[in-house]
Structures are given as structure tokens and as C-alpha cells.
Amino acid sequence: MTSSGNPADGADDDLLWLEEIEGDRAVGWVEAQNALTRAQFCDAAYIADFDAVLDILNADDRIPFVHKSGDHLYNFWKDKAHPRGLWRRTTLASYRSVTPDWELLLDIDALNAAEGVSWAFAGAVRSPDKTRALVSLSFNGTDAVELREFDLATKRFVDGGFAIPQAKTRADWLDQDTILFGSALGAEDSTAAGYGRLVRKWRRGTPLDAAEIVFEVEKEDVAAWFSVNRRPTHEAVAYWRALDFTRAQIFVEPQHGAFAGQRLRLDLPEQVSISLNAADLLFSPKEDWRVGDRTIAAGALAVIGLDRFLAGARDFEIVFAPTPTRSLQSWLETRHGVVLQILDDVRGRIELASRGEGGWSSRALPDLPDNASIYAENFGGEDEPELGRELVLTATGFDQPTTTALWTGEGAPELLKRAPASFDATGIEVEQRHALAADGTRIPYFLIGRHLSAGGPPRPTILYGYGGFEVSLTPSYMSVVGKLWLERGHVYALANIRGGGEFGPSWHLASRKATKHVAHDDFAAVARDLAASGVTTAAKLACHGGSNGGLLVGNMLTRYPELFGAIWCSVPLLDMARYTKLLAGQSWIAEYGDPENPEEWQFIRRFSPYHLAGGEKPYPPIFITTNRTDDRVHPGHARKMAARLQALGQPVWFDETVAGGHSGAVDNTKQAQSQALGFAFLRSTICAA
Fold first, then answer.
1. Which domain holds residue 559?
2. Are 658 and 140 in contact (CB under 8 A)?
3. Distance CA 182, CA 187 (A)
4. Long-range Cβ contacts of 350-354 (<8 Å, 24+ apart)
5. Is 547 tagged catalytic?
6. Number of structural domains, the chain?
7. Strand pairing of 178-183 and 198-203?
8. What is the model's pLDDT at position 410?
9. Pairing of strands 326-334, 566-570
10. Has residue 318 been placed in a domain?
11. Residue segments in the chain with a per-residue pLDDT below the cut of 70
């Protein structure tokens, strides 16, 4: 394969026709494969699992997660009667009750029936006075959305209001009659990666095509992003020229202070995260940054007054300094100080950092669980000049149902909601173990199962991983896995391999481009450790991953088939010669490399499962899933890999849904179907070994 000069052109790919998403031949092939898969796995046990998952997803006593804006708490809710969901709101006083009084704003199922379109709700942005919203509607879960202005009082879309046709769009309000938006409406407006290249200012009552271009980037850049800060006395707009997935040039246009009305590029590294919510600039570089006679360490959080920084000052104060085991995941600016969301050896910590006479110090927030993931989110406060007071804290653990709590800056957080238990956790134990990578690095992983400390014979085990884009895998309540897997005495493992962000930026940079294979080798090391420790055997071990994790497990199939008894591969990247030509793939060159660069293709081809696949040795059975409306990772990856494995005589099952997008989360029924099929596949493979 790919014997031509350019591996990305597909000239030698005899399965290129499967990239035609709605092509008759391709769809016919998909339907035939789906029929085979469902005939094989949709038995009575599958139906029981499907029903169990759907009951969990539709449970009336789930937590209705909310976002506060003004005086209201907004929630999007799906259940059995409303599979596409309800957008609704309530007050904090009502939310505290067992049965809040919800005000219905938009019924997506009713909208679909009225318009004959399979819309999915993709979020809403309230106007400055909170009377209107920009509602995003996705067709069956695509990243591309149609944007419409919505009146919150009349609960109707605004005739003649702001409306943008379906495209990859982001928008926000400048004022009640003006919005900023970036939209990949056509070739001129789009980057090669398929995102918006232009940011436009659109005034009410004027035509869409007359919207003023206020910021633009090059065609080969990934995107033009922006953010709007409407906080009184701190109003500003920031613009990002995203050069690739990790690098950006950032510009700020404040409305107050010495630089009001000017657009200035921030003199910061291109790999950096920032916040600009009030008078300060907070930033965290992804690589060590030498500035003057000092170095800001990768993963540290530094602060300086924005006006002073723009004027040339560089006397940064350090709010957080990383250690080999403590990394900063995110932060929030609040009136009480800077709230730090930290991972300490992959365990969640929330600390409040405050400035004192001796510099910055931090303290842990009280009464939070120790062995869990904890997330902090501002709870309103966007209209307060001196920053907001309230936070919502969400805590979750493998065997701990999720809770939410409100913290006002004083005392212990107040419990708001607790999720119901979805499975019987009797005897469930959680252990953190470490595997040794080939280079001697200790790779942590969590092991979850009943009575682990008691030992016993090897058990069917799922190993899950991701290993890319600085995404951290942390404990979270295992509602579905607990019900369909742990309750039956099986074991689950979660690997914190390099490529993720569990230990800061360096953990990510250790597995990128030429070293991308390191994440895959780490995962294989965990698999070996699971077998060597007696938890499982190769025949009883399955691996599962999706998206970049699908690439990970695709490499387990082609590079380490002897370590596994089954592979579950969801919405994957697999053809790394063609990935930049398919949908959003161009935006991931910083992670994987450019296959059209001959030097980079030499290392990419070594982790491209589509090109590594062969028939010389037996592979474990693989179940590959995708979604026809996924406009992020092209379904051609999954289709072509399945067809190639079939031609090689390797055992492969395939399933493609026609709604759900990349996440597959549009409809609880579709999610239940996907989960039940996956576990049916495992039941017939590693559970039968």
C-alpha cells in the first residue's frame, strides 16, 4: 500500500470507496456488516444489557447538572419520554428541593416533529441582559451546528433574529444587538482543517454576508478562535490564531485601561493556556519559558497585572509550581482567590490560592473526598466586576456515585445533589498499580474489581486507555461498566499512559509525533503487568479505546496481538496516511505528524494500523464501531480497517450507527445499543476463554 510518492493521495488504496460517507456501495457494505454483527450478538443477554443501560441513562433520579446564568440555573435533560431532550431552567431555591420546578424552554423532540429534522441540542449562549440566547442545533450530533436566536420569555425562535446556517460555528454576544462569530460556511471562511478562518462582527438588522471581518488567520492554520469578556469594568475580546492543535498566537483587545481600544499580541509562548477574567493575566506554559533571568516551568501557573504586562513588566508571581507527581489541570478566577484543580498522583485535589504579603500560598478546600476526581466550575458571577463568589464542585469516583456541592468561599461546601447508585458495589476495591515501561518509566494504572486483595484465578478484564492530546484519564463513577461488568465479578483497568496530561505537559510531550508510539508501548506494558500479576491472562484480556484511543487499540491489534484476547475499537483513527485529508484531521498534525512530509511519514507509518495490518499471524477478534454523522473522525477509518481485516482473513466485527456524531451521545437509546453490543462482543470472546 501507499507505494506512490504521496501516501496521503490514496492512489494505491483499493478501499477508498468506503470513504464516500453516503455512497451507495459504501452504505450497502455497512448495512451488510451491521446485519451480520447484530445477528451474532443481539441475543437475549444483549437485550437484558440494553434494557439495563437504558434504565441507567433514563433514570429520573439522575443529577440534573446545571449552569448558572443570571438568576436562573439551566439544564438539558433526556429521558424515556424525551429522547432528544428538554432545555429548561429553574432557580437555586427550587433546585435545592427534591423535585425542582422546571420551566420548559425548548423541547427538541417537539421541534424535530414540527420541522422533520433530527436535531440535537448543542448548547446555548445567553445575551448580556439574559432575555435572549444563541441556540446551537446539531443534525444528529455533528460538530457542525445551525445557530438561531431564541427569546427566553416567549420561548420561541426570533423571527428575523440572528441565524447562521449549518457549519462548524462558535458565536458570542458583544452586546444585545451585536454578536461575534466564526463559521466555516464555505471555502473562503474555512481553514484546511475545516474550522472557521474568519471572525466576523454582525449587527442586528444587517445581512449575514455584510458582517464585518474583525480577525482572520491563514488557510493553513487550524482556526480563528475568540472569547468575549463582558464583566463590567473588564470588558475585552481575545483572539487566537491557532497555528496547530497546540500552538497559538493570542491577541487581546481591552476596553479599559491604558491600552483600551488597541489590539495587542500577548508576548507569551505559543504553547500556553491563559485566563483574562479581570485585571490579571494568568498563564501556564506547556514548555519551560525563559524570560529575562528566570524560567517559568512547564505546567506552572503565573500571574501579572494585564496592563503592566502589556506595558512591558515581566515580574511574574508564581501561583502554582508543579512537582513530578502534582500537575495543574485547570484553574478558576474567583473573588476568594484562584481555585486550582490539581492531580496528585492522578487523584483530584482542589486548592484555593491567595496572594499575601509573602507571596502566593494555597490551602485545600475542606470536606472533599480523598480518592476521587473533583471538578470546579464557576457558578454564575460573570456579571460581577470583582469576580464571582460561588463555585460548584463535582466529585466522582469509580465506585462512588457523583455528587455536586455549592461553595461560597466560607466553610464546607453545601451538598446539592447526589446521584443514585447504578450498580451493587459490594466488595468493590480500587487499587493503583504501576507497570514498568521499556525505558524504566513507571506507568500508573487503576484496577477496579470485587475482592482484588483476595486474589483468585485470572478473570476477564477490560483495559481502557487514551494517551493523547494531554487528556487526563481520572476516576469517574462506572455506572454502566459497574452494572454490566463489575457486578459479574470481572475486572476493569484504566491506564494513565504517556500522551495524556496526568503529570503535566511533559507527560504529553513524551508521546507526540515521532514518539507517538511511546503511548502504545506503555499500554502494552500495562497489559503485560496485568497478566504477570495474575489478574488476568492474555486470552481473558480485552482493550478498549475510542477516537485517539481507537488508534491506540488499533496498534494493540497490529503490534501486540499476543497480549489480548479481544479488541474493542470505537470511532477510531486508523489510516494515518489519509487522516489529514478526512474531516478535521488536518488539525491534529501537531499530535501525529504530517504524512505528506516524507521524513514524518517514516515514523507515522510505524503506528498506522491500516498499513501495519497483515495476515502473517493471527489477530484477536476486534469489534470496530463508528458513526455516519461523525464529522470529526471520518467513518472511513473504521470501515476500511474492517474491510481490510476481512480480506486478510482476520476475525472482525463492525457496527455503524447513523446518528450520534463523534460522542454518540445524542440519544440514550443509541448509547445503550452501542454499550450493549460491546459487552456482548466481550462476553463471546474473553468471557468464553
1. 7-54+433-684
2. yes
3. 13
4. 350/374, 350/376, 350/393, 353/319, 353/320
5. yes
6. 1
7. antiparallel
8. 87
9. unpaired
10. no
11. 1-4
* pLDDT of amino acid 2: 47
- 553 HSE (CA, 13 A, CB side): 31
32 CB-near residues (< 8 Å, 6+ apart) = none
Catalytic residue among 336, 508, 637, 662: 662
pLDDT value for 4: 55
Residue among 183, 275, 327, 547 flagged as catalytic: 547
* pLDDT of res. 20: 97
Q: What is the DSSP letter of 185?
A: -
Task: Give dist(CA 286, CA 534) in Å, integer.
Answer: 39
* 223/184 Cα distance (integer angstroms): 9
Is residue 407, in this structure, part of any structural domain at all?
no
What pLDDT sits at residue 370? 80
Is-catalytic flag, 256?
no
**What pLDDT does 663 receive?**
82
Specify the length of the chain in residues.
Answer: 689
How many CA atoms lie within 13 Å of 484's alpha carbon, on the beta-carbon side? Answer: 28
CATH number at residue 637: 3.40.50.1820
| Joined grid coordinates for residue 440 | 524504566
> What's the CA gap between 595 and 589, in Å, rounded?
9
Q: Is residue 643 part of a domain?
A: yes
**How far is it, in rounded angstroms, from Cα 269 to Cα 290?**
10
Element of type H or E holding 553 = helix 548-559
CA 143 vs. chain centroid, Å, equals: 13
